[in-house]
Specification:
single chain, alpha+beta, Alpha-Beta Plaits, 2 domains, 6-stranded antiparallel sheet, 4 helices, disordered N terminus
């Protein structure tokens, strides 16, 4: 007699999600990451087919240029940007005018300490990413391939599988967890509006989310490394 474990798996996933609610902090853009940022200088903008030099304003799309984060955000919320074209001017840009290039999300400003120390209870699990898959248990060979891919490509310290449609990845180092999350998110975005068969980067991926404290919260509370 074959036992249907589906209700048990869904109940486990439901309990895990309730016990460790999703974090809602913004995206901290790290040094070396590619961004699109506002250049607060004078640029040439095409008007009626003619190039005109104009002082840039944040609402003008042509005033955003590619670069990489050099440092930041500082206490006032500014990133220092290394522009792709090598321009040495206007490198200090407020975080509200900086977007992560791969993820197309606004870069976060400085994060202060958690305010409610009396009620805050840190997660007692490693940094955890819940991965929703494109397929499911009905194709066990496919599921085994997916698990093997995540283990090889992202090298999590723990993998919890056996669910339908989900895999749980756990990392003892919050920075490595964050890097894996961003890599997964970038892979998903590459395949938006594309034929799944033609987009290898998201063959197994549908969505991802953190379970429990996200990496930023772990760093703020001195828990970058999971000690068990």
């Amino acid at each position: 007699m074959e036992v249907d474990w589906t209700p048990v798996r869904w109940r486990l996933l439901w309990v895990l999600t309730l016990a460790f609610p999703l974090a809602s902090t913004g995206l901290l853009c790290l040094p070396g990451e590619s961004v699109s940022a506002f250049f607060a200088g004078e640029v040439q903008i095409q008007v009626a087919g003619l190039g005109q030099d104009q002082e840039c304003q944040p609402e003008v799309e042509e005033c955003f240029f590619g670069g990489q984060v050099y440092s930041g955000p500082d206490a006032e919320g500014h990133y220092t940007i290394n522009w792709d074209d090598g321009d040495s001017q206007h490198r200090r840009v407020h975080h509200s005018h900086v977007r992560h290039a791969a993820l197309d999300e606004a870069c976060d400003g400085p994060t202060g300490p958690i305010q409610d120390h009396d009620t805050y209870v840190p997660s007692r699990i490693p940094c955890t990413i819940l991965v929703k898959l494109q397929g499911g248990d009905s194709d066990r060979d496919w599921m085994q391939e997916a698990v093997a891919m995540f283990k090889t490509d992202y090298q999590p310290d723990e993998v919890v599988d056996g669910f339908e449609w989900y895999i749980i990845l756990r990392f003892y180092d919050a920075n490595r967890c964050e890097a894996s999350f961003r890599s997964l998110a970038a892979a998903i975005r590459k395949c938006e509006d594309m034929d799944l068969e033609a987009c290898v980067t998201s063959k197994y991926l549908r969505t991802i989310e953190y379970i429990g404290d996200d990496p930023a919260t772990r760093r703020e509370t001195g828990r970058t490394e999971f000690k068990g």
